[in-house]
């Protein structure tokens, strides 16, 4: 399992910091989704209950659920770097588990019940689609319209 420090660098870039994230997204005001999830600690791999906030393509987590402008996130993931979000009960052998994966890392979460798990998967999945870079016209290759000598 990858370290959260490594996931942090992968998802936010090595030069990003929490202050920049805090200033760029007003996570305390009208988030898209909030709730308690279990996640593993960065260095000591025990499961800890954290308050998660999904807002503007970023998934923040905090120690407490009372969030204000002055709250300091314990971490953040930019969902546009994520490839998949899916159930992971069989991987972890834990009920209500799901995973969030980038090209290099996978992070695991445990919800309180199946309904919460499905709602988080759906919310994060929608956010991945909304905030991922769209394919531009110049990036589309139409092999059917190329001349035979170009193929």
From TrEMBL:
InterPro entries: PH-like_dom_sf (IPR011993), PH_domain (IPR001849), PI-Interact_SigTrans_Reg (IPR051707). PROSITE patterns: PH_DOMAIN. CDD domains: PH_AtPH1. Residues 30-129 form the PH domain. Residues 1-23 are annotated as: Disordered. It holds the Pfam family PH. This is PH domain-containing protein. It comes from Araucaria cunninghamii. The lineage of its organism: Eukaryota, Viridiplantae, Streptophyta, Embryophyta, Tracheophyta.
């Amino acid at each position: 399992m990858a370290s959260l420090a490594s996931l942090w660098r992968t998802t936010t870039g090595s030069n990003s910091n929490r202050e920049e994230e805090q200033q760029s997204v007003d996570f305390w005001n009208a988030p898209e989704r909030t709730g308690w999830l279990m996640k593993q600690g960065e260095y000591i791999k025990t499961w800890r209950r954290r308050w998660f906030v999904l807002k503007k393509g970023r998934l923040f987590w905090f120690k407490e659920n009372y969030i204000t402008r002055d709250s300091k996130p314990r971490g953040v993931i930019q969902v546009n770097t994520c490839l998949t979000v899916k159930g992971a009960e069989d991987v972890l052998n834990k009920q209500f588990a799901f995973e969030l994966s980038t090209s290099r890392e996978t992070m695991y979460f445990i919800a309180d019940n199946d309904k919460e798990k499905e709602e988080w998967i759906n919310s994060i999945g929608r956010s991945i689609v909304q905030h991922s870079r769209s394919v531009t016209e110049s990036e589309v290759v139409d092999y059917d319209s190329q001349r035979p000598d170009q193929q």
